[in-house]
């Protein structure tokens, strides 16, 4: 985890909110003013197309963001509303946008769709939008088409079990949601977050053709496949750190986090603990560590 969120950053000065940024002739973005240690500068809502458009990740339920998005659309027809996943900074505004435009919502499924089970009583980091159910359920590889654009659904579970990226064929780019972000590593928080699934999804997108990613938070990511492979190396190094901690006698997650994440703001340690738990669940499944019963935030771990 490497969250670059300095206390003295003036977001009003460094970022433009509530205004359409036309990135390419086919891609526009409106940035919601919801900066935080989990969203960086805010949630970016993407508008794809020229006249009949798709909207990716309508964003949080904020009147100011809704008004800015409607102004950016400028009377254009919205034919599709696409949601990468169901966290509160991504999907809630989709219902209001649907009511206004008449467009259907498209996603892998409601929150928890794709979950393999276990630890159902745990709190999911960042907050789940339990009210969202897509009108159209997408499968991996399905195509969504407009007059001048084609998007491919790319199923990427890990951050959430229903996470979906979208590849724009005309520009060889990927809207990566929270799966790959340039400003920070992604928090994987069980039970809905799954580290083994996340690593498999990283490997999947690293083998695709797209060379540019547009995450929901932060700047575009150039040399995206190389960047993604770097994240995989970083995640494996975290597992090596976990093993070293356990071997040194730091057998609880609460003891590992201050050692492993000494470089980050302590306010982020609870989120870091969730990612360590996700690693340990995957490592226990692979027989690299052991503990009594299911892997849990308070378990005592030993090297398997």
In short:
By secondary structure, the protein is an alpha/beta fold. The chain is built from seven helices and 15 strands. The protein is elongated.
Structure description:
- It is a single chain.
- This protein has 304 residues and is of the alpha/beta class.
- It folds into two domains: 11-231, Metallo-beta-lactamase, Chain A (4-Layer Sandwich), CATH 3.60.15.10; 235-303, Arc Repressor Mutant, subunit A.
- The chain is built from seven helices and 15 strands.
- It has helices at 11-14, 63-73, 93-101, 195-206, 224-247, 253-260, 269-285; strands at 20-24, 27-31, 44-48, 52-56, 77-82, 104-107, 136-137, 143-145, 150-155, 164-168, 173-177, 212-215, 221-222, 289-290, 302-303.
- α4 packs antiparallel against α5 (224-247), α5 (224-247) crosses α6 (253-260) and α6 (253-260) packs across α7.
- It is elongated and about 60 Å long.
Mean pLDDT: 91
> In what order do the strands lie side by side in the largest sheet?
1-2-3-4-5-6-7
Cα Rg: 19 Å
Please outline the major beta sheet. 7 strands, mixed
Q: Structural class of the secondary elements? A: alpha/beta
Give the CATH topology of the largest domain: Metallo-beta-lactamase, Chain A
Quickly give the CATH architecture of the largest domain: 4-Layer Sandwich
Report the CATH C-level class of the largest domain: Alpha Beta
In the predicted model, the low-confidence regions spanning at least 5 consecutive residues are 1-9, 118-126
The tally of strands reads 15
The amount of helix comes to 25-40%
Count of DSSP H/I helices: 7
Question: Domains counted in the coordinates: how many?
Answer: 2
Q: What is the global morphology?
A: elongated
